[in-house]
Amino acid sequence: MAVYKQQESKFWWYKFTWNGESIRRSTKQTNKRVAEQMEAAHKTSLAKGEVGIVQKAPVPTFERFSERFMEAIFVRCAEKPRTVAFYREKLNRLLEYPKLARATLDAIDEALIEEYVKERRKQVAPATVNRQLATLRRALRLAHEWKVIDRVPRIRLLPGERTREFVLTREVEAKYLEAVPEPLADIAILMLDTGLRDGEALALKWTDVHMQPAGGAKFGYLQVQKGKSAKARRTLSLTARAVSILTARLKTSASEFVFCGKLGKPILVTSLDHQHAKVRESLKLPADFVVHSLRHTMLTRLGLLGVDAFTIMKIAGHSSITVSQRYVHPSPESVERAFEKLEESRQGVARIGVGIELGIGEKVSDQKIALSC
């Protein structure tokens, strides 16, 4: 039915039947042609829905989408305030670039990302740019999961990122532990002897610590309930030195947390960083020596002692074996020893084979069989 006007109405109306249902609407228009176009558009919309065609919502700008992204980060990382703060800070840096902030998500392509990288690289180091790119990549991947965009552009990180590889020598360790105040002194020993992350150490509760060995074990142990990744949940043995400092701390503790502040709540990581920086400067140690270096030192020592990458991965709570492999540096001697074991194994199998053959083919004295095996 064509559009029509009701009595005493200046607006055009339309009415039609769709799948047995009567549809009647006012166009709120005085122009008949526009009203007819609105009727046609309504019919087209119904037809699209009937054949499974859904009109896509407008793609938001990166600035608008960033609000939804941060809401998701806050929910997913509610128990990791440092992670939330990290994403918020990196997202703010991304939004400082107008072209990126105002672009719709589907317009963010490799070319625009490269423009951003070139501009940022003039101001900050590769590592800083890479953290911002990682944030952008996560945001776009979430947008793809939520079907806001059809594809995620390829985001390549910058090479030449400088990593902190500082490792304490035994001599420097002794000087550091003597100079550092509590509670960092005890936390440092625990990190050096168990490979805990600083955040994991600060989250420890006394219910996670078991001084006495269980079953047939030789050492007491502690349990990491949660951490940076899914693999962070793990059980770690306690050295005699670790048991000593924990036992002493337990005697004076009135909190459920092993390391707590004045109000009985966990100490902030930033507090450790401040304590550590003062001692590092007083001892004139390199700026690369950060609190995390204590964990890095422990894992490096395991690698030098010949511990395999899979065991290091288990102890460290790494999410990937690739991360653990960098601590393993086989010496020429250990490589040669591996071939010695292979050769010994081959020769052993060969000798056993000869013994079996002699035993079946003829009567051989016990002495000959013993020699052949």
Q: What does the model show?
A:
By secondary structure, this protein is mostly helical. It has four domains: 4-50; 62-145; 183-325, hpI Integrase, Chain A (Orthogonal Bundle); 332-372. It is built from 16 helices and six strands. The chain has helices spanning 32-50, 62-76, 81-95, 98-102, 110-121, 126-145, 170-179, 184-194, 198-203, 240-252, 269-282, 292-304, 309-316, 321-325, 332-361, 366-372; strands spanning 4-5, 12-18, 21-26, 209-210, 221-224, 234-237. It has a three-stranded antiparallel beta sheet with strand order 1-2-3, covered by helices on one side. Strands 4-5-6 form a three-stranded antiparallel beta sheet, with no helix packed on it. A hairpin with a 2-residue loop joins β2 (12-18) and β3. α3 (81-95) packs across α6 (126-145).
Low-confidence spans: pLDDT under 50, at least 5 residues? 361-373
Helical content band: 40-55%
Question: Mind describing the biggest β-sheet?
Answer: 3 strands, antiparallel
Query: Numbering strands along the chain, what is their spatial order in the largest sheet?
Result: 1-2-3
CATH superfamily of the largest domain: Intergrase catalytic core
Which structural class fits the helix and strand makeup? mainly alpha
Q: Give the domain tally.
A: 4
> How big is the Rg?
34 Å
Task: Tell me the name of the CATH class of the largest domain.
Answer: Mainly Alpha
